[in-house]
Every structure is written in structure tokens, then in C-alpha cells.
Amino acid sequence: MIEIGAIDNDQMLLEGMSAWMSRLPDITLTALAVSVDEFLAATRRPRIVILDLNLENFTDPADNVRRLVAVGHTVVVVSVIPDPVYIAATTEAGASAYVLKANNLGVLADVIRQVAAGETPMTTEHAFWLGRDARPERPQLSAREREVLVSYGSGCTVEAVGRVLGIAPGTVRTYLDRIKEKYARAGRPIEHRVQFLDRAREDGFGRVRLPPK
Predict the structure, then answer these.
(1) Distance between CA atoms of residues 167 and 182, nearest Å
(2) I want to staple 31 with a disulfide (CB 3.0 to 4.6 A). Which of 5, 12, 16, 190 is the partner?
(3) Three-state SS annotation for 13-52
(4) Which residues neighbour 153 within 8 Å (Cβ) at sequence distance 6 or greater?
């Protein structure tokens, strides 16, 4: 019996998947969660995890995959709308497969079986969207630098970014200088404020939101 877990912010989808999986003779869904934090806090965590690409909680899809892979999970990413940037990023982060939610659940079950056998199946959609990866060169930003980039790019003042992230305004300015330097070295300079948001969107650093001021 193949045990799997599922992480998706759509509770109705989770319940529907659970009901469908219960009819399969070789796959059982034993853990449900609406976030990676909730899943990792659970007592029972199956090795194979079905992870929604966009959990709509402003977490970065690639970081979600990395966190799960880092503690030994095998991740199958699923999504309603294909996003080539995030598909490529989650694949690089260690996802074993990608399945478009437009497929029927039989396709997902076949992928789960292959992953359980140690394979890394490539669906037609996965190959297609990886082939459309046209991301520019991405600088290596730390997690804190990404937070500053997204928050400042969203329109917050330096002081507001500091309050949201719990750091001093002077530290925020230091991070902004580092971010600008790294993008300049990558050949994608930030020459005005709007470009902070542009770079965050181009590189898929999480869903951009406006933090409270």
C-alpha cells in the first residue's frame, strides 16, 4: 500500500481527493494539510506528498518544495494554472513530478505509483512547460533579501518594511543595497523603485502582497 499526504488550500478538493483515493486498492491518503507548516507539524507524515503549486498563503512554491525535500519527502506538484516560472523553480528545488489538475485523478495515481517505485515521471505538461522556461539570470538572494525585495517592491516605506520584518530601517537599507548590487552583477540593474517589484515578479519570489504599514 502506497501512503501519501496532500497539501492544498482548497478543503473541498482535499476531501474529494480523499474520497476518490479510498477506492484505490494500492494508494491511501493518510495526511491532509492546508499548508506546509501544518503538514510538517503532523505526527503522521507519509513520504510522498502531493503539493499544490500555489497555496495562496504567500509562501514561495520553490521554498515549499525545498522544505519538504529537506526532511525526506518526495514531492509531486499539482496546479490548476501552469506557470512556467514556478514549474521550473519547483523542479529545480527537488519536485519529482508535476501534474496539471486538468488531468483526471487516474493520471495522478499513475504518477504516484511511478514515484513510489523510485522513478521521476515526466508528464507531457511538465516537459512542455519546462521547455518554455525563459527566466532571466537570477541572482542568489537570501531568504531575508527576498522578503525585503517583495515588501519594498510592494510599496512599503523603508520604515514599514522594518516594522513588518522586525529589523531596523538602517538594516533594510543595507539589504536593499545588497539586492541592487546582486541584480547589477546579474546584468539586470534596479534603477528605480518600481523595478524592485518587477524583479520579484520576474523571478517568482513568492506572491507579492502589500504588508500592513
Answers:
(1) 21
(2) 5
(3) HHHHHHHHHCCCCCEEEEEEECCHHHHHHCCCCCCEEEEE
(4) 193, 196, 197, 198, 199, 200, 208
DSSP 76-110: EEEESS--HHHHHHHHHHT--EEEETTS-HHHHHH
Instruction: Provide φ and ψ at 50, rounded to 5°.
Output: -90, 120
Other CB atoms within 10 Å distance of the CB of residue 22: 10
Q: Hey, how many other C-beta atoms are within 10 angstroms of the C-beta on 208?
A: 16
Full-model pTM: 0.65
Q: How confident is the model at residue 176 (pLDDT cuts 50, 70, 90)?
A: very high
DSSP, res 192: S
Cβ neighbors of 9 (< 8 A, separation 6 or more) are 34, 35, 52, 55, 56, 57
Cα-atom radius of gyration of the chain, to the nearest Å? 19
CA distance 69 to 62: 11
Reduced to 3 states (helix: H, G, I; strand: E, B; else coil), residue 4 is strand
d(CA 48, CA 50): 7
In the predicted structure, residue 113 carries a pLDDT above the cut 80: yes
Q: What's the pLDDT at 26? A: 95
* pLDDT band with cut points at 50, 70 and 90 for residue 199: confident
| Proportion of the chain above pLDDT 90, given as a percent | 48
